[in-house]
Amino acid sequence: MRVTFPHMGNMWISVKALLENLDLDVVVPPPCTNRTMSLGVRHSPEFICLPLKVNLGNYMEAAEMGANTIAIAGGVGPCRFGYYSRLQKEILDDLGYNYRMVILEPPQRHFGEIFKEMDKLTKFSLGQFFTAARLAWLKCCLIDAVEERVHKLRAWELTAGQVDKVYKEALSNIDASQTRREIIKAKERALESLNDIRTDSTREVVRVAIVGEIYTILEPYVNQDAERHLGRLGVEIDKSLYLSRWVNDHLLGGFLPLESSRDALKMAAPYLNSFVGGHGRESVGYTVKYARESYDGVIQIAPLTCGPEIVAEAILPEVAVKEGIPVMTIYVDEHSGEAGLITRLEAFVDMIRRRKYHGWDAAAGQERGFEDVLSRG
């Protein structure tokens, strides 16, 4: 059995560590490229959401490397993610790929259900599973810690590209680490290197939060490297979703003392008080949260035709006006272009920078239709 899985940002490092420590032969899908997209788009329904298309391309490329088993998470609720595995399996069968699909459904009652789900892949002891899970979880958390620092430091670095160089090296070192001590040491070295980078404290830096659907937030190929572009425009970034946060919320039931989405869900209640699938309610709640934490703007990123995020988008203009924070929505699909994205980001950042540093406030902007500017960027 040679196991592969969807490529989503840095998730591959943690998933690889988990599966390899369960003595599985792992095929990491190549990083997403135009070829990945092209393969998936060619064989997917036209109006299905983008992650399914890119994931399908991942599996086709992994098959070229010898993969014959796919491990994929399941899903519940209105989001179409819960149907990905079935649809992708039928497409791959029609194309002649001899894949076995193992669907790891989210636990309904307790963490022990995850152990039973993983047992579909291979036989292992409870002790082996927890050792593998602890190392994978540690890598996940420390990668997110380094990434959070990177998102803030890019806006200040004196020489563009230094932060990304350290970040790339840190990911490589954490991936190569085999023990808890090595993983922690790799993270500490990365943070020390980031702290040594020279910065320009005179810049008019603004703070922007990114909310939206998890795949388009975490996979840089799909969001056209929006985080890197924003950093080079002098923007400190925070995201409503990191992999460790999602795992703690949805797989561990919020058991660990990490930041949870529970507060954001409470803040969403006056605007959206029901589950709409995916991360729609979180997108609304986190926008409220970031507004009350004095962020300068919020960007919602989602796949075109994503139902939960369409619901959120319809509500965000009201949130923007009542909470006093500019919000811009960006939908991505196979036709999205980097140049168009950069133009929109530049315009949005210019608007919020003038608002923050040059006195362009709500009252001054009212005559120009401030509500429309807030909601659409």
Compact description:
With 377 residues, this protein is α/β, with parallel strands linked by helices. It is 53% helix and 11% strand.
What is the secondary structure topology, with strand pairs?
Layout: E1 2-4, H1 11-20, E2 25-26, H2 34-43, H3 50-64, E3 69-73, H4 84-94, E4 100-104, H5 112-118, H6 126-153, H7 162-176, H8 180-195, E5 206-212, H9 214-218, H10 226-232, E6 235-239, H11 243-250, H12 262-268, H13 280-292, E7 297-303, H14 307-323, E8 327-332, H15 338-357, H16 362-365, H17 370-376
Parallel strand pairs: 1-2, 1-3, 3-4, 5-6, 5-7, 7-8
Helix pairs in contact: 1-6, 2-3, 6-7, 6-8, 7-8, 12-13, 13-14, 14-17
Distance between the termini: 49 Å
Count of the domains: 3
The secondary-structure element order is EHEHHEHEHHHHEHHEHHHEHEHHH
CATH 2nd-level architecture of the largest domain: 3-Layer(aba) Sandwich
Structural class: alpha/beta
What distinguishing features does this structure have?
8 strands; four-stranded parallel beta sheet; Rossmann fold; 3 domains
What this model shows, in words?
Helix content is 53%, strand content 11%. With 377 residues, it is an alpha/beta fold. The protein folds into 3 domains: 121 residues, Rossmann fold (3-Layer(aba) Sandwich), CATH 3.40.50; 72 residues, no CATH class; 174 residues, Rossmann fold (3-Layer(aba) Sandwich). Strand 1, helix 1 and strand 2 form a beta-alpha-beta unit. The longest helix has 28 residues.
